[in-house]
Amino acid sequence: MSNLKDFVQQLPNSKDFKKYGVYPDSLNQVSGLWVFMVKEPDQDFLVAAGKNASIFHGESMHCEPLPCIKAPLSHDNAVVLRELFPFTKPIPVLSKKRSFGLGDRLGIATPGHIKVFKKYNAYPIFAQQSIRELNLTNRTYEEVLDAASFAVFRDGYKDGFGADGDHLKKPSEIEYALSLGFTMITLDCSEYIRNDITGMTKAQVNHECVLPEDIKKRYLNKKFEIEGISITFDEEELKRNVLVYGKAVEYAIHIYQTYFANGKTNANFEISIDETATPTSPTQHYFVANELTLHGVKLDTMAPRFCGEFQKGVDYVGDIKQFEEELKIHAAIARHYGYKLSIHSGSDKFSIFTLIGKHTLGNFHVKTAGTNWLEAMRTVASSDPKLYREIHQYALSMFSEAKKFYHVTTDLTKIPSLDSLKDEELVNLFKQNDARQMIHITYGYILNVKNSDGSYRFKTKLYKLWREQSEVYAEMLSKHIGRHLELLYKGFEK
User: Fold this and answer.
1) Number of domains in the chain
2) Residue 160 near residue 93 (C-beta atoms within 8 A)
3) How far apart (Å, rounded) are the C-alpha atoms in residues 440 and 175?
4) Which of 178, 215, 228, 364 is the most exposed place for a label (fewest CB within 10 A)?
5) Distance (Å, whole) CA 285 – CA 330
6) Could you confirm whether 214 is annotated as catalytic?
7) Which runs of consecutive H residues, i.e. helices, occur in 16-74?
8) In 3D, which of 94, 125, 96 has the Cα closest to residue 260?
9) CA distance 401 to 260
10) 67-90: b or e for each residue (b if 16 or more CB lie within 10 Å)?
């Protein structure tokens, strides 16, 4: 049966499939079983029709001549969906030239993201969350992955997507993500990186570090050439590198050997050394990459801590000329060792995207996250000003608590008073850096605060609004994330 309208009209009370709410791109068939997604005012659900419909968990429906199941968007049904339709299951994507991480904190952003990636030949990572974000949103990795799977099924996206266990620090976290089929692990080495070495005197460094003989032989009095760039180490610099990154390298080797070596898992491996106060110099990048390679670690991507500041939700802060000069070397080192450069906190870094596209030769991984939340809140400001005003005031009161989790330079005194703004002017707050950062980092508090009766103060209202405004939100996201890709591609496309 190939005609969607004819098929849906067999279902009860379905004189017209548009009225019935079927997502037209969701109609799929496998082994005589038809599956598609339907929209109701409060929620979506799956319909499975065919002799094997009972493989889904749900309630029986009468729709002659086929047995039908109305199935909720539950974890169990997501597992079944991924087994039946491989395009709903994540794949490793970092081996592709271009990949783009999209942290969807709310579980509703993927439809907007899909609009973008139907236009660009980059591979999206629709499921990307850190443990910190899970804790702040009261979500699980099961929910993160399921939301992505249901969204690609709903909108018929079949080009492949990844799932990233982002900024994981502990073996138990890595095991959790891999057990669910996540196809990328970002190992956060920040707890093993020392930030006190930069301020040490030469005498203090010499007291702290006696160089192992094998390290001396590998680096001292040697010149390393990469794409015409010379990298050398003097003894003091080498000691500082060992002190700053030595333990992080050891930990990364241990994690790789435990979970990735010898094909133990079909997942990409990224190392993050960016969540520190100490910028990663090109020489330090080379040291880390070389040590990992010598110990058999095969990286897919590495995220150094670039010079300047990659603060949340705002453009790059720093000397762009210095950034470009160092980026050239970072990108050359990545190419030399066979992995992609990864740019973390990449949301809204519009002034440097074209440089990234240019100097990576279009071979990059960029991560975004909270900017999707900001677009969701911009949707609130434009559609329900009264609700936004209440949330904004609450966010101001919680900012000092939220700031403990993030490095930002937000100045609350620069945020315009709500009393001075008309309703239609509230969306302009999302053009102001201090207001953006204030809303950006308070998301966990906004979503979790409850009334005295135990009900959510904002969360229930927000999800209801976002569902009603889903097309508006998707279009906002498409334009906003699309601007990221447009500038990245401008750097390498002729």
Assistant:
1) 2
2) yes
3) 29
4) 228
5) 7
6) no
7) 17-20
8) 94
9) 37
10) bbbbbebbeebbbbbbebbebbbb
Q: Which pair of tokens denotes residue 464? A: 């209801």
Domain containing residue 400: 372-480
Q: Which residue in 370, 315, 303 sits closest to 340, CA to CA?
A: 303
- On whether residue 314 sits in a domain, the answer given is no
Residue 209 domain-assigned (yes or no)? no
The number of CA neighbours under 13 Å toward the Cβ of 141 is 23
CA distances from 50 to 6, 26, 66, 89, 154 (A): 15, 16, 5, 22, 19
What tokens does 139 get?
Answer: 């979500």
Q: Which of 38, 72, 106 is the last residue in one of the domains?
A: 72
Catalytic one of 104, 146, 166, 434: 166
Domain termination residue (choose one: 47, 72, 97) = 72
The residue-averaged pLDDT of 122-135 equals: 96
| Catalytic residue from among 133, 188, 270, 275 | 270
Alpha carbon 395 to its chain centroid, in Å, reads 23
Give the burial string for 422-436 (b: 16+ CB within 10 Å, else e). eeeebbebbeebbbb
User: What is the structure's pLDDT at 17?
Assistant: 54
Q: Which phi and psi (to 5°) does residue 408 adopt?
A: -140, 160
Structural domain includes residue 490: no
Concerning whether 453 is annotated as a catalytic residue, the answer is no
Both structure tokens of 256: 């790789």
What is the tens place of the pLDDT at every residue in 432-448? 999 999 999 999 999 99
Q: Would you say residue 257 lies in a domain? A: no
Amino acid occupying residue 197: I
Kind of pairing between the strands at 229-232 and 163-168: unpaired
Indicate the pLDDT class of residue 405, thresholds 50, 70 and 90.
confident
Banded pLDDT at 13 (limits 50, 70, 90) = very low
